[in-house]
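Please produce the structure of this protein holding adenosine-5'-triphosphate.
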Amino acid sequence: MASQPAVEVDGLRKVYGTTVAVDDISLTVYEGEIFGILGPNGAGKSTTVESIAGLRTIDSGTISVHGIDPVNQREEITEVLGVQLQEAKLQPKITVQEALELWSAFYPDPEPWAPLAERLGLGDHLRQRFEDLSGGQQQRLSIALALIGRPRVVVLDELTTGLDPRARREVWELVRDVRDRGVTVLLVTHSMEEAQTLCDRIAIVDAGRVRALDTPAGLIGSASAATITTFETPVAIDLASLRELEGVTAARSENGTVTVEGAEGVALAVIEELRTQGVAPLRLRVAAGSLDAAYLDLTENDTDPDIRQEALR
Ligand SMILES: Nc1ncnc2c1ncn2[C@@H]1O[C@H](COP(=O)(O)OP(=O)(O)OP(=O)(O)O)[C@@H](O)[C@H]1O
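Below is the modeled complex.
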């Protein structure tokens, strides 16, 4: 990972009326990273990335994108940052080519749109209207429009929501291509799979704050269910003694299958304990936990920011 910061956010706070959308967010995204922001509905993700893109006023904090303050240097920010917003809708009747030409006109030195369209698989759809494109094609067009100004940073908000599995994978490949061409990617997503497969690092945001920031493996490793050990046993076993093992966070038995969750390395202790109990486990399996588990550990059920009104300072 390159070590130069591309985006630096420090103490960001944004309040809408009585709603605290972003309470206090600080994070640094490094050049060349695919950086994910995950979190429940209303956590403040879009407000954060829209503030980074210079599309919001902010109440306090500082933001820098390659040294540019997006809040006070709105024109300059468009030269370094491209943005594809959540459910960005174009005029339904506009054709792919018209949209590409229109966007090109906004920039002093746009990327030639024809090769860009070709690279994004839109070359055969230039005369097609936006409303007639498939969901995947619409997303490709929105990525093309975000890239046309040759940005150094691109913001993608819920890029693959509503796409079928094949289209999602194709879009993920495009995002990797974009990064491989040297563009830093800031990605808001609700998909654990997307975050886990695509992102170098992830910030989990809840109630307007960063709850954790790490690599996908780091987040999974810190979850209460970092390792999941399962086995079958025809005889009853002493679950309480499994629960007492260091690092074990949960142990349960269902229809003869025992599941033990815990920190990394807990499986060995489980096997030792079974040996002590004289139990030979069948179909023993040890699996890494999931990002879902880390996410559930770190986020609360109710993140409705109206509940955070009291937090107004
Ligand atoms: N322009 C606005 N005016 C008033 N409230 C807003 C505005 N934009 C966002 N909010 C509120 O701020 C909170 C945070 O919204 P935001 O869109 O940043 O969350 P999010 O994490 O992106 O959510 P989602 O996953 O649902 O897209 C929400 O309660 C939202 O209703």
